# Entry
Amino acid sequence: MDPLRKELYETCQRLGVGITVMKAFGGGDLLSDKLSPAGKSLTLYQCLHYALSRPGVASVMSGARSPEELKVSLAYENASDSEKDYAEAFAAFPKISWKGHCMYCGHCAPCPNGIDVASVTKFLNLARAQGEIPETVREHYAVLSHTASQCIRCGVCETRCPFQVPVMENMKEAAALFGK
# Structure
C-alpha cells in the first residue's frame, strides 16, 4: 500500500473515522488473470477481505457486473477463512503494479474541454474486454456531453493521474473506436 494512503488509513482508525472503500475489485481487473496488474486474479472474497482488513475501513461498496457477482459478494459473510485468505495469492503474484491501469478515480479531472476522462476510459476498457462495443456501452458513450474526440492532448490529466495511465493515447483510441 502507498505509504501516504497507509498513514491516512491508520489516522482514520486512530481517530475513529470509518472509511468506505470503493473499487475493491480494481474496476473488475483484479478478478481477471488477463487484466489484473498483478498478473493473477483474485476472488471476490479475497478482494472484499483485503479491503475490509485495512485499518479504519468500515464498509466496502462492492459493485457488481452481474447478478452472480452480487450473490457471491453477499455470501462473503458466510465464507470460510480460507476462502477469504488473500495472503497466498499475494505471495504468488508474478507482478504487482497499478501503473497504467485506470481505476476511474477521477484524479485526472477536471479536463479543460470538459471530458469525463474516467467514464470515457471505462467505456473504452469495457469495449476492450469484450472485444467489441456492447450496445449499452455505445449508448452510454453517445450521451456523454464531451467525447474523446474533443481531447486537445494538453496532458494535464496525465500529470494528475496517480497510476500513470496513458490518458491521451486512450482518448485517441476511444475517439477512433467510438467514431467521435
